[in-house]
TrEMBL record:
It comes from the Eukaryota. This is F-box associated beta-propeller type 1 domain-containing protein. The lineage of its organism: Eukaryota, Viridiplantae, Streptophyta, Embryophyta, Tracheophyta. Pfam families: FBA_1 (PF07734). Signal peptide: none annotated. It comes from Solanum stoloniferum. Residues 151-297 form the F-box associated beta-propeller type domain.
Length: 404
């Protein structure tokens, strides 16, 4: 399938949210290891409070400057869990951390991959849990989302916000702050397993970072995909005039992925449906025939990627990474995962965000393979995750879910 080309571009478009027709630029996100070490520091320690051992006119002025620098230039880069802990430092810090300005700065500045929300999707009695990549600095107070009105399915995750589905309602929430909102009912029927994406892209130039929810749904008795869009700015749904009729198979697979202004949906054929949210233009990206349906859409170093994994023999796994508008094979690597074994096992690639890592689930184990460091990291065992089937990547952010 050919990719539809746009014949115009909006001159005032956000440089941080380029349209899909500009291509995919590579961007490396710093892990800010030093800042994360600071996240575990206790400003209430005795050593920090011993100001009487030094001349008051020196230490008190220096202390004030250090606190101001940390408050203004370090806090925006810390994950939400650390910020909640630092509210106890002083009334001034508590007020600053609760301010809309810091919420805006932090949601834009702290976008490191934090972990996974996961659920067992077999029944409505599903157990929602959170797997943190660094429990000491990253976490949520209620991983089971018990602050919502009912048991929910998590459909989509984007820059710190979750889109959830109850028995009849959609919710958008921030699990780090327990901030949540019920969306008004859509005009069209989306079904029990909607192909729906939460689109939230914090912008440094716009403190009112609104979000959208885009549902791609099949027209009744027609092989055509329509799009219904919710905007938090207007707090309403609207049906786009755009539609897609060129998919080989119009059946979409569950949720999707949002990055750089575009929502992406996997299909039951070797195609990816793309939808430019601002311009409301659909497009189709073809996957190589050999990829099949065993891979996963993911974001790697700022680029849309499709990653597959295959257990070649014993504990040796082959990872193939496809990138670009043509989804060409960019990298193929064999790695060893786990202990040596005589059997081969089916494996599953899990989506990541703002990372160079590939996440692979082998039975109950989850491994992260860091491409640049060529290092394998085990982040979960069967006893930790049980029978969970659906994993959604998460960023520990203060993003506002109720902004409208």
């Amino acid at each position: 399938m050919e990719f539809f080309q746009a014949d115009h571009m909006n001159d005032d478009s956000d440089d941080n949210s380029p349209c899909i027709f500009k291509g995919f630029s590579s961007a490396t996100t710093s892990q800010r290891h030093g800042i994360h070490r600071l996240a575990g520091y206790d400003f209430k320690t005795e050593a920090y409070q011993k100001v009487d051992e030094f001349p008051a006119h020196i230490i008190r002025e220096g202390d004030k400057k250090i606190k101001d620098v940390v408050k203004e230039h370090v806090l925006p880069f810390l994950p939400a869990k650390s910020l909640m802990k630092f509210k106890a430092v002083s009334k001034d810090w508590d007020k600053w951390i609760a301010s809309p300005l810091l919420t805006h700065q932090q949601s834009f500045s702290c976008q490191s991959f934090s972990g996974y929300f996961y659920q067992n999707m077999s029944t409505w009695d599903m157990n929602t849990m959170f797997l943190s990549l660094d429990p000491s600095t990253i976490g949520v107070p209620s991983p089971d989302l018990d602050f919502l009105l009912e048991v929910v399915k998590i459909l989509s995750s984007c820059n710190g916000l979750l889109l959830c589905q109850g028995s009849e309602k959609y919710y958008v929430c921030n699990p780090a702050t327990k901030d949540w909102k019920i969306l008004p009912p859509p005009r069209y029927y989306h079904g029990d397993e909607p192909a729906i994406v939460l689109a939230f892209e914090p912008s440094l130039r716009n403190i009112e970072a609104y979000y959208h929810v885009i549902c791609a749904f099949p027209m009744l008795d027609q092989p055509i995909i329509g799009f219904e869009i919710y905007s938090s700015e207007s707090d309403s749904w609207s049906c786009s005039s755009a539609y897609c009729s060129d998919l080989e198979n119009p059946c979409l697979v569950g949720g999707g992925l949002f990055m750089k202004g575009v929502a992406y949906y996997e299909t039951k054929s070797n195609e990816v449906l793309a939808f430019d949210v601002k311009e409301e233009i659909p497009a189709i990206i073809s996957l190589p025939v050999q990829v099949g349906r065993d891979g996963s859409l993911t974001q790697m170093d700022g680029e849309l990627s499709y990653v597959t994994a295959f257990n070649e023999c014993e504990n040796v796994f082959l990872i193939d990474i496809y990138q670009g508008m043509e989804m060409c094979l960019k990298r193929s690597v064999s790695i060893n995962l786990g202990p040596e074994r005589t059997l081969t096992y089916a494996c599953k690639v899990l989506p990541c965000v703002n990372s160079d890592a590939v996440a692979i689930q082998v039975r109950g184990h989850i491994y992260l393979y860091h491409i640049r460091e060529q290092k394998v990291e085990s982040i979960a065992s069967p006893s930790a995750i049980g029978a969970a089937k659906k994993f959604l990547p998460y960023i520990n952010s203060l993003a506002n879910a109720t902004l409208s």
